[in-house]
Amino acid sequence: MLKNIRTGAAASTSGRMQLLVRELAQRGVSFRVCNNTLQGRNIDRQRVLPEAVIVPSGVAELSRLQWQQGHAYIQP
Fold first, then answer.
1. Closest CA to 56 of 74, 33, 30, 72
2. How far is residue 2 CA from its own chain's centroid?
3. Residue 76 within a domain
4. Gap between the Cα atoms of 49 and 64, Å rounded
C-alpha cells in the first residue's frame, strides 16, 4: 500500500513539473538536457520533455552560451 502512495505522489509531482516546464517554455524559457548525463545515468531520451533540447554536453553548452551572449555562469 505504501509503495502505491509513493508512486502516486511521484506521478503527481511529475505532472506538476511538466506543466510548469510547458508554462515557462511558452514564456520563452529554454530548457536543455545534457546527453552525457542521460547516457551516464542510463536514462532513455524518450523521457525528456518535448520542450527541452538535448545537447551533447551541458558544460560545453554553458560555455557556448556564455561566449555567445556575454553571460557568466562558470567563473574561474
1. 33
2. 29
3. no
4. 23
Letter for the amino acid at 3? K
Contacts (Cβ under 8 Å, ≥6 apart) of 72: 66
Structural domain range at position 28: 2-69
Is 29 contained in some domain? yes
- Total domains in the fold of the chain: 1
Q: Could you tell me the pTM of the whole model?
A: 0.72
Q: What local confidence, expressed as pLDDT, does residue 8 receive?
A: 57
The pLDDT tens digits of the residues spanning 30-53 come to 999 999 999 999 999 999 999 999
The rounded distance, in Å, linking the Cα atoms of 66 and 76 is: 13
